[in-house]
Amino acid sequence: MSIEVKVPNLPESVEDATVVTWHKQVGDAVEREENLVDLETDKVVLEVPAPASGVLTDIRVQVGDVVKAGDLVAIMSESGAKGASATAGETAESAVEAKEESAPPQAPEQTAAAVPPSPAVRRLLEEHALDASKITGSGRGGRLTKADVMAYLQSKGEEKKAAPPAEPAPKAPAVAPEPSAPETVAAAPSADEALIERERLDQRVPMTRLRARIAERLVQAQQTAAILTTFNEVDLDAVNKLRRQYRDSFEKEYGVRLGFMSFFVKAAVEALKRFPVVNASVDGDDVVYHGYFDIGIAVSSPRGLVVPILRDADRLSFSEIEKKIRDYAEKAREGGLSMDDLTGGTFSITNGGVFGSLMSTPILNPPQSAILGMHKIQERPVVVDGEIVIRPMMYLALSYDHRLVDGREAVSFLVAMKSLLEDPARLLLQI
User: Fold this and answer.
1) For residue 251, which phi and psi values (nearest 5 degrees)?
2) DSSP string spanning 156-225?
3) Cβ-count burial of 300 within 10 angstroms (0-12 exposed, 13-18 middle, 19+ buried)?
4) Active site residue 375
5) Number of other CB atoms surrounding residue 112 within 10 Å
6) SS3 for 76?
7) Could you please report the per-residue DSSP string of 399-422?
8) Taking phi first (over 0 means left), then psi (-120 to 50 degrees means alpha), and beta for anything else, what does residue 70 get?
9) Helix, strand, or coil here: 367?
10) Which residues contact 148 (CB under 8 A, 6 or more apart)?
11) Which residues of the chain are modeled with pLDDT < 70?
12) What distance, in Å, lies between the first and last C-alpha atoms of the chain?
């Protein structure tokens, strides 16, 4: 019995997806709910699980193809629950044989002459008077490379060296003997090998759906918002002391490390409560004031930057914030973030300090009106109570939409965060 594998319903606002990875090939045995193929949308990567146990007999779409909800992607043959393990090998073998029989006859091997060689290769062919059609190209689409030409020259040189020597010619003392052909061929590759070392290659790859979506949103933010950035600096000595004092007991109690992000999320929430316009957004000619605090945390993933959301961050404890951020980071690395994880958000925080950034101007995440940029903690001399002391300092940057947020609110917002972080007891007392 054949089973059709179709694209599942896509998340809201997502029209199509791109096939990025097949985890099974024709003839492979598959268990129920085992992931067959990954589909990349402009926000997340979706898995297509097997609807039943059986054997994959036909793949209808290839990597790079664009599919929509309900499209047929593969065909499976169902095997009985008891006999699946016993017959998987036989079924797989018959599936492969059927595919080979139905496959169209393959074209003859493509030679180097079918694809125009590069200028450097043409020059090498001309120097040695070689026929490109006699050399098999190893490049993409049968393209001839310099390495192919050099290998051909070397093989021809070896053939000439292995040939039986000709009968000695009569001595002619008045005329110097000309060098033999093998010596000439053997000396040529040294200069050409140096030419290969100088070859400069370009690689063109299509942009991933996620990267294309990121590019689109960043351009949209630049074109539709009046983005300005204001800066301040914060002394994290008190936060460091608090973390050192309770680090071990906190991790033992909650099973997660006490990091910096929970302090910054808590401070941001308190500052947003004081300046609600920073937590608002523009919708046409209206200003939408949000009565909740959904904080986006920028996370780097192998496919690009993603911003999962800490929903109702004002109701989360320090340990809950740290756990959620840790879980989001793991999901991002494994490509397991869902649409719900990435949807919404009223304010964002990005931490370039983990990569060593000392100062930057973060860009808005539309339709949000502000984003906080954290940076590298660096010990610097500062004046405290009239004395020069060394303190762990961090520059803070707030980028904001000047259509909605005035400079006074933006600067005051950062000043509020500075006072809360330099005296963490305020976060607990909410003063």
Assistant:
1) -70, -35
2) HHHHHHHSPPPPPPPP-TTSPPPPPHHHHHHHHHHHHHHHHHT-------PPPHHHHHHHHHHHHHHHHS
3) middle
4) no
5) 25
6) strand
7) EEETTT--HHHHHHHHHHHHHHHH
8) left
9) coil
10) 112, 135, 136, 137, 138, 139
11) 12-13, 43, 79-120, 123, 140-141, 157-199, 430-431
12) 68
Q: The tokens 């003997």 sit on which residue?
A: 177
Q: What span, in angstroms and rounded, lies between the C-alpha atoms of 154 and 137? A: 15
Provide the 8-state DSSP code for 140: G
> What is the number of other CB atoms lying within 10 angstroms of the CB of residue 179?
9
Whether the Cβ atoms of residue 42 and residue 13 lie closer than 8 Å to each other: no
Tokens at 35, concatenated: 């992931």
Active-site residue (options: 23, 65, 312, 402) = 402
**Could you tell me whether strands 387-401 and 370-374 are parallel, antiparallel, or unpaired per DSSP bridges?**
antiparallel
Task: Report whether 363 contacts 279 (CB < 8 A).
Answer: no
List the structure tokens of 320: 């809950």
Kindly report the three-state secondary structure assignment for every residue of 283-345.
ECCEEECCCCCCEEECEEECCEEECCEECCHHHCCHHHHHHHHHHHHHHHHHCCCCHHHHCCC
Half-sphere exposure of 345 (CA within 13 A, CB side): 25
- Give the CB-side neighbour count of residue 405, counting CA atoms within 13 A: 31
Please tell me the distance from the alpha carbon of residue 279 to that of residue 287, in angstroms, as a whole number. 11
> CB neighbours (10 Å) of residue 154?
15
% of residues, the chain, pLDDT over 90:
40
Looking at residue 21, its pLDDT comes to 86
Please, is 151 exposed, middle or buried when counting C-beta atoms within 10 Å of its C-beta (0-12, 13-18, 19+)?
middle
Q: Is 71 a catalytic residue?
A: no
- Sequence letter at residue 240: N
* Of the candidates 63, 6, 52, the residue with the CA atom closest to the CA atom of residue 30: 52
Whether residue 333 contacts residue 302, with contact meaning beta carbons closer than 8 Å, is answered with: yes
User: CA 103, 105, 110: angle at the middle one, nearest 5?
Assistant: 125
Longest Cα–Cα distance of the chain, Å, equals 110
DSSP string, 82-130: TTHHHHHHHHHHHHHHHHHHHSPPPPPPPPGGGSPPPHHHHHHHHHTT-
What is residue 268's predicted lDDT score, i.e. its pLDDT? 97
Which residue is catalytic, options 65, 340, 406, 423? 406
Task: Kindly state the tokens that stand for 347.
Answer: 């304010």
The count of residues in the chain is 431
Residue 286 to residues 94, 188, 281, 282, 403, Cα–Cα distance (Å) = 64, 75, 9, 6, 11
Question: Residue 418 has what pLDDT?
Answer: 96
